[in-house]
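#struct-pred
JK: can someone run the complex with V47? inputs below
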Amino acid sequence: MAFPESRLRSAGLSDVEEKLTAGDRLDLSDGVRLFECRDLLVVGWLANREREKRHGARTFYNYNIRLEATNVCVASCLFCSFARLKPGDPGAYTLSLEQAWDKLRQRSHQPLTEIHVVNGLHPDLPWRYYTDLLRGFKQIRPDIHLKCFTAVEIAFFADLYGKSDEQVLRELMDAGLDSLPGGGAEIFAERVRRKIANDVNKCDANRYLSIHRLAHRLGMRSNVTMLYGHIETAEERVDHMLRARALQDDTGGFQAFIPLAFHPDNNQMRKLPAPSAADTLRVHAVARLVVDNIPHVKAFWIATGVEVAQTCLWFGADDLDGTVQEEKIYHMAGSQTPTAMTPREIERLIRAAGREPVERDTLYRVVEHTGTDG
Ligand code: V47
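RT: done, structure tokens with the ligand placed:
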């Protein structure tokens, strides 16, 4: 179905529509114009067309759990409400391996397909903690996919334990690592990164990207995130998308682009407002249009809120992440969403949005006949 030509024209996006129809790529100035265009529905319509070209009405989710094994973190990112600088600081915690493994054992009745681990940058844990963590998970559930440790953590491990990035990845893969999550990307532009994540312990944009490149070369898949809604400009958002797109051109290893809405509670950027629902819809839409080579755009419902995530499914997004079950990073930063949804609840909200739910595993293979728990 065509969008009224007059509406495209008055939105100033006829040429963008023509480029998309011809299969031409959008550039930085196209992306910035999509952010500046007042007619959000035109932007959404274009993104939805690209989404439906790739996935029709299908909307993916997975049956996963999140685990944050420690919030002790030597970095001091201004946007973070989760980290505690030192062990023993109020609110600091580090799970013992047994406690971490128990989180999985307690879910033995659930047909989980993924465990997603993100941690603080802990200065004192032995290297074995991480490799044993993975080995233990695989022993408990050999079939489970381990999506663990952001590129920022991989870089930190390499520096702390005196290994190369490649050695770290190889040793973790030996222990059972299957893929990398997309966290830690924030905004690649130097101006913003220097302000919000200026820490010697946090790797820069180039190293983040080079670790993902390496992971892809070693045969793993990964995701890439973008933390938006704080001090970044439209140009810096599009620049971020284009850097992800450029790496994807080379490797094809990214599975999902994941915009992450900034949450301002309990962190050093608390004076800033959270991004609006309209901005969230637009970011997902522009991501779908600019990042034309990453198959999935994920609306992480914990970050966007459940209702906005549903609406994102008409603004470019085709994935909602998963059941999650325990989440700290966003809830410590003010997220009002539940910390868990059952597969049945996720399916219900996808259907209520007029889309078709598909349970997937981490690699986007369709999972049949689960979704019975809850
Ligand atoms: O790297 C931290 C972000 C990320 C805040 O790969 C914040 O499938 C908003 O990366 N407000 C961790 N965001 C979560 C993450 C993720 C989530 C879902 C799926 C995947 C995936 C990855 O959360 C951090 C940081 O960018 N973050 N604090 C905050 N106050």
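RT: quick notes.
Residues 79-81, 118, 150, 181-184, 186, 223, 225, 227, 258, 260, 262-263, 267, 300, 321, 329, 333 surround V47 (CB under 6 Å).
The longest strand covers residues 221-228.
JK: thanks, will look after standup
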